[in-house]
Fold this protein.
Amino acid sequence: MNILAVSCHPDDIEIGAGGTIAKYAARGDRVTICHAANGDMGHVVILPDELRKIRLAEARAGGEALGAVEVVTLDAGDLTVDSRDPDTVRRLVEIVRRVNPDAIITHDPEDYMKDHAEVSKLAFDASFTATIPHYETESPHIARFAPIFYMDTLAGVNFQPEHYVDVTAEIERKLFALARHESQVKWMLDHDRIDFLDMVRTCARYRGYQCGVPYAEGFRSLKAYPRLSAKQLLPLDDC
């Protein structure tokens, strides 16, 4: 299968779906990770131009650790992601067409900040537009509407999973990939006194409690015609 993960910031996929992405990759699926924003505002001390370079490099390292075949960015500045911007939409449409995904993973529409919500809408709109023959990009239109799965919100707030993916075997790889985002992990520990790796592990353990395994990631599916599929697209195993 072809899997497209569309997130806002360079570490968001590792946080919400890193174990699932690693599971897809390990079974031979082709995974592409796309970040809409470059993360340039995610630090108190490091200035945006320098931080942009750091975070894009960390994104590539994190994606490689999960087994993604490609990590791309729309390179929008933090706090500027706009799902109505024609250029941003067109760039994501081209990525959707080129990947031709069997499934898309993205943010929940009610996640904790504007950029995340905008990316959720952007993924929805761009994946629809990718099927329109007379909307021109470098790649031709695709015939199918990819089902969309919303990954967990930060800390699981106001999110009730419909599907659980057992990531017990992948939890250490998930955290290793997240640790590649050193500028964020270190900044949160030094500035906010938050051990982010422990926080993400704890959230995965909590989702695991809910479905009876040591560690899990939670998802819910977009309910919109014709996105519903009778196929099993998430790597659920026995969870």
Remarks:
- The chain has one domain: 2-221.
- Residues 2-221 form a domain with the Rossmann fold fold (CATH 3.40.50.10320).
- Residues 94 and 137 are 6 Å apart (CA to CA).
- The chain has a mean pLDDT of 95.
